[in-house]
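Collaborator request, handled under Task 6.
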Amino acid sequence: MLFRLPDDDTLHAALMARDASYEGRALVCVQTTGIFCRLTCPARKPLRENCEFRETAQACIEAGYRACRRCRPLAALTDDPTVTALLEALARDPARRWSEAEVEAEGYDPSTVRRAFRRAFGTTFLEMARQRRLLAGLQVLGEGGKVIEAQHDAGFESASAFRAAFARMLGVAPGSFDRKPLLMADWIDTPLGPMVAVSDARALHLLEFVGRKALPRELQRLHAGVKGALGFGRPEPTEQVAAELGRFFRGESAAFGVPLALHGSEFTRAVWAALREIPAGQVRSYSEVAKAIGRPQAVRAVARANGANQIALVIPCHRVIGADGNLTGYGGGLWRKERLIALERGFAARAA
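C-alpha cells returned to the collaborator:
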C-alpha cells in the first residue's frame, strides 16, 4: 500500500479524536470485545492497551475479529446489495452454518457471491461465516457458558464422521483400525475449532487443531511407530486435557498437568521445556528461547523445534514471536495465535 500506518500511539490518538482522515486506511481491533471498528466509530473508546490497528478488514477478520454493528466497517467497503444482504444475515445469526446450498437457497448464485466477497474483502462469504461461528463460541465461553453449549464450528457431526475424517488423514480404510489399540484418538471441541487428541493409557502423545497442515504426517508417524496399533477411544489423558482446555478457554486456568509423551531429540525436548516456562500472557523471541536453554547461537534450530511441537497449547509454541515483535508462522493459523495471545493476556492481568 502507498499509505503506511503510523505508530499505534498516533492511531489511538486519531481514534480518540474520531479522525476521519484515516477512513478506509486504518481499523482498530478491540481485544476485550473481539470486534473491529472504524476510527470514527461513535461507540465508547477502548483503552490504549486493548487496541490493535490494521490496514484492512481482511486482516481484522483473519485475526479473528468481527465487525462492529454500530460503525459497520464492512458495509463501507461495498455497495453490492447481495453482499450487504448476506452481511446483514450473518449479523442476525452469527452461529448459522452456511454452505453453498444455503446461499443458493437464499436466492443467490454461489459463484457470484464468492467473487463479490473476494473483491470487497479478499475472502469468501463462507470463510467469513466460519470465522463468526468460531468467535460466537469464544464469546459464549467468555460469558461463562459450557463448552458443549458454545456455538462453534465443531467440525464433526458424530463419532463416525470423526473416524472417517481420521482415516482420510491417515490414508487408510476406516475399518482397518486396531480394535485393541495402544494409541487412541478422539476429538475435542474448542471455541477455536476442533482438536485431535491421541493418547495411550498413561500420556498424551498429540494435540493439534484439525486444520494444521502437518497433522496427517504427524498421525502417520504415530501410526507407524505403534505398527498400526492405533484406534479410537478417550483414555484418561484425553479426558484430563479436555477438562484442562475447558478451564483454559473459560479463562479460569492456564495450567496444564496432563502427562506428556514427547517424541523428539534431547535438544528438541529442551526447547519444549523452555516453552512451558513462558508464563501465560507473555511472549518470547526465538533468540530468547535459545539463550534460555544455553544455546544462544542455535536460533534456527530452536525455530525448527518450535515448529515440530505436536502438543499444541500444553506446550505453548504460540508464545514465541519474531525478534521484531511480529507474529511468525503458527501451524494452527496466525489468527488462532493472535486469539490465544489475547486470551492469555487476561490471565496475566488477573495475576497482576
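The cover message to the collaborator said: "Residues 185 and 198 are 4 Å apart (CA to CA). Residues 137-154 have pLDDT under 50 and may be disordered. Please let us know whether this matches your experimental observations."
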